Amino acid sequence: MNWILTIVTFLPLIGVLAILLTNPPKRGSENLVKGIAVVTSAITFLGTLLILMRFDPGTPGLQLVDRFDWIPSWGIQYFLGVDGLSILMVLLTSFISMLAIASSWNAIKTQVKQFYIFCLLLETGMLGVFLAQDLFLFYIFWEFTLVPMYFLIGIWGGARRVYASIKFFLYTMAASLLMLLAILYMGINAGTFSLPDLIAGRAAFAGAQDLLFLGFFLAFAVKVPIFPFHSWLPDAHTEAPTAGSIILAGVLLKMGTYGLIRFNLPLFPEAAYRYAPAIAVLAIIGIIYGAIVSFAQKDVKKLVAYSSISHLGFVTLGIFSLNAAGIQGAILQGVNHGLSTGALFFLVGVLYEQTHTRDMSAYGGVWKIMPVFSVLSLIVVLSSMGLPGLNGFVGEFTILLGSMGAESLAPRPWIFTAFATTGVILAAVYLLWMFQRVFMGPAETKEVKGLRDMNRGELVIMLSFLLFIFWIGIAPSLYFHLMDSSVSALVSHLSSTLMALR
Predict the structure, then answer these.
(1) pTM value?
(2) Segments in 356-440 forming alpha helices (H)
(3) What are the pLDDT digits (tens) for 352-375?
């Protein structure tokens, strides 16, 4: 039995227990709670690096497996495993969680213990989603993540936090119920909830493949979110505290794209080919719609939220290209979006904590007052635009390469690629427009003139983001190597299905 995945997944709960046992007698002692949370998240990140060290990129199947019977009479197992489809998501989860928790050190002033408990609980849930290989266990982790995020938005969010938190919870939970029905149907008919066993025994539920595909797809489409299931996202992003927005953009949205790759493609390959053109159309609508709506935003945080809809449209397009380039690009672009958009939300939080406004008209001239902050912000904006040499370009280029040669989008896949490319152009326009309004021009308002530049802690967090933004942009081969064998095995599985359909 290999316990490393279990240990790392539930390690944040040790921090939760430690925080519960603390009883700060006065406000200054809240730093102890914050320190426990930061150290716990840092140790969890180191634990995921240990998983990476023991991971063999040349092995396409599951590795470091923890598996035993949990409820044998129902065919349910405790089953954790990692492969090339999930290793980058596991690393991203621990990294983003660590930076999000650290970024909230000065921002959270009320109910401090509860805030960090929810952050650590959320980290355990997210790690479980990416590692669970039994559908019953996966669903438990999937639904569990809703609870901490609901409270993070509802208690520490903005003025409309209650509305945003309820909307987030209801949208994502309602869609997940359809996935639950699909899971129950498959598990009962196949006699197991183990994902590898279900893939091998697809014949047991082949007759209902289209309905099962749609049940899973709707749950994941709302989480991504794919147009037109996106309306909960701008409210949740805008009202969430900075740490909540970083985690929501950095990790939670990737649970949807990961689910499409992990479940929809291998379990229902025939349906994936049938629905690929329609889903690709929705993805392209999302790319263009998200970019156009971003132009109309006056709230800088809401602009970044709508940009997520546009960027994640690229990820969805890559997934349903159903070839190696598209799927690898989708996985890497999921990581890129987590880094770049997480960094953007962090930067917005730095400004908001000093001025208490996100209205772009209240800014202008920030470059003169905060030169270090402004230079780093420009790099992140350029990475989100897809500038060559930075992370965003690698993912978008690979996705477009995959869509151009996608048999699933035949007979004219280049049309999908052409429309998707307009999203790259629009992103450059609205992001540079936002940068010009916030950072350039004279520093006229009293709030801007009173700004301070980044402190040491904020600089460390920002440089941590930039390390991977530059690394992926300049030398992405390591990241592709980690997922290559697993993606190749998945594409081979899909290709054999396509041959059978012909």
Answers:
(1) 0.93
(2) 366-369, 371-385, 391-404, 413-439
(3) 888 888 888 888 888 888 999 999
